[in-house]
Predict the 3D structure of the following.
Amino acid sequence: MAWWLMHQWLQSFAYHVSMGWRVFAVTGLIMVIITLATIGYQSLNAALMNPTDALKAN
């Protein structure tokens, strides 16, 4: 959908570039990798944390 919308929008310009589907695929893949790395890091921190430290803080 995003590719089609960008394609239609770019067609309205006198000088335009073509956007391939690979741009959106690579962007989506990078987004998934960053998301999984962030969730993995936070999960590992929560799993290794001592529960008594969390109780003391409150």
Remarks:
- Residues 20-47 form one domain.
